[in-house]
Amino acid sequence: MNYKPMNDHFIKAYDRIKDQIHHTPVLTSDTLNEIFGVDLYFKCENLQKGGAFKIRGALNAALNKKLNHDIKGIITHSSGNHAQAIAIVGKLLNLPTIVVMPKNAPKVKMNATKSYGAKVILCKPTQKDRENTVNDIIAKNGYEMIHPYDDDDIIFGAGSVGVELHQQIKDLDYILVPLGGGGLLSGIAMYTKTYGKNCKVIGVEPENADDALRSIRNKKRVTSHHPDTICDGLLTTLSERTYDKIINYVDDIVTVSDYDTIKAMQLVYERMKMVVEPSGIVGLAAINQHSIFKGKKVAIVISGGNVDMQNFFESYNFN
Amino acid sequence: MNYKPMNDHFIKAYDRIKDQIHHTPVLTSDTLNEIFGVDLYFKCENLQKGGAFKIRGALNAALNKKLNHDIKGIITHSSGNHAQAIAIVGKLLNLPTIVVMPKNAPKVKMNATKSYGAKVILCKPTQKDRENTVNDIIAKNGYEMIHPYDDDDIIFGAGSVGVELHQQIKDLDYILVPLGGGGLLSGIAMYTKTYGKNCKVIGVEPENADDALRSIRNKKRVTSHHPDTICDGLLTTLSERTYDKIINYVDDIVTVSDYDTIKAMQLVYERMKMVVEPSGIVGLAAINQHSIFKGKKVAIVISGGNVDMQNFFESYNFN
Prior knowledge:
2 copies of one chain form a homodimer. The first copy, chain A, folds into 2 domains: 7-52 and 152-314, Rossmann fold, CATH 3.40.50.1100; 54-145, 3-Layer(aba) Sandwich (Rossmann fold), CATH 3.40.50.1100. In chain A, 45% of the residues lie in helices and 15% in strands. Chain A has helices at residues 9-17, 30-36, 54-68, 81-92, 107-115, 127-141, 152-168, 183-194, 211-218, 240-249, 258-272, 282-289, 310-314, and strands spanning 26-27, 39-44, 74-77, 97-102, 119-123, 144-145, 174-178, 200-206, 252-256, 297-302. At the A-B interface, helix 11 and helix 13 of A face helix 11 and helix 13 of B.
């Protein structure tokens, strides 16, 4: 494997953002350790601002752009956790903020994004219409686009999860990271390898959204992709940028079933009292499905906890 | 108020138990601070072993008994979080453990208690039958009773929440504590006052289970009590012991509606990504209902997170 020497981009990114984000805890569970026969450490980015790790990259990217020149505002397109992260960043930095969302995005995510003060503009639910809508707005108002994962600053920011985690827990054997567009996985793997940590970094994909595994096996990025999974945060494909980083820095990719993901989610609710989204907890599903982790010291990165709990609370409704 | 000087029972209890419990995090939320106009610090005992603070007192009491003489086993009666705490303590200390539970206790709590290795014995759902069943067993096997709250060692152990909290956050104006039997509130208030912390400690009761408020107002312990609240962990009445401590060390008691408690619970799920039980989050409901906390630095003790989420997960069921 080619461990290119890196400058201290990750440390710089972490120093830049750390006072405006949560230093998320690493939690453990004797019960889960016993069930799986693994020494588990949960890095809880579900407890991060906006309920996901996304603010780390978004804040780093926006701050870096501000360092270089005055900016008029920030914009992105997203139906997921990146939308809320950009809205929070806009609020923290006092910048006008627009999030383009597909018309069919969940109302709860639209409302959360608006609640931080961002303007939400709806578009047709196609990748092309999302990009065209953003480009039309940028042409008019000159806002800065902040991509959800295909951007080095996003990857350096996301990698700060690894910076914190290695400070919190020493001598990990493995880190398991949810894999969608590949920003979080790339960042954690690059930081871990370039700083000489002796620890394997593994990406975890839903088995019916396994474009990254197929890309690595074919030694060529797979672009044809028809995902079918409950993990709505892991539907995206790798970019050339994240494909290249994963080839160079990630030790392996494993897949998990949706069934095991939901069982993992339920264990975390019942035994660890945390709200996690399916995409966020695939790492624990991998522990159940793959025996190589037995007896090892393994970090599970919980990437987010944004899940619609309306049904649950409706059962409590009363006058 | 009569601040009797205390020996260092709380520090000793904390030193005794701290290596076998979780040092639970204090979490914050910008969004909740903004909604309520209060500087809020959540002490997360829902993330404690067994999903509640109860293990602190139970472990301290059992360890203290073991120091004084050999013990054959431990026993309690409980339909709630104390049951799981005793089961975990039995497992940690490798002691035979019996929990007497009323027949109508939730299956999920019975199963959790059994899962830690305790023997569950069912009885009729009356206080009298619970006590008689326990006494009959003790007469036969000589196990040690560990009461859920009416015991100084339990109060010293529960008070270790306060020891940790004051280490984690300095200069608090208020600490809000759920109030049922009064063990947790007594412990935190005694520690706070006897160690000279300049901070008010307030008990929070459901308005339809307000025996403590009525006791304080009448200057006599209320024993007639017909509670009607969704907060199943706060149904119990004060004992003479906790009544006396509350009179002496607690600054005030406030009540909250079940409606506000459920709204508080939903906010914590959606904005802080934590599972909390209604009884555990009455402190946040008090913030909404009482204006004295505006602009203050307030700790909310989240006492537990054991809630049945079967309905929620049934919505995910698939083959």
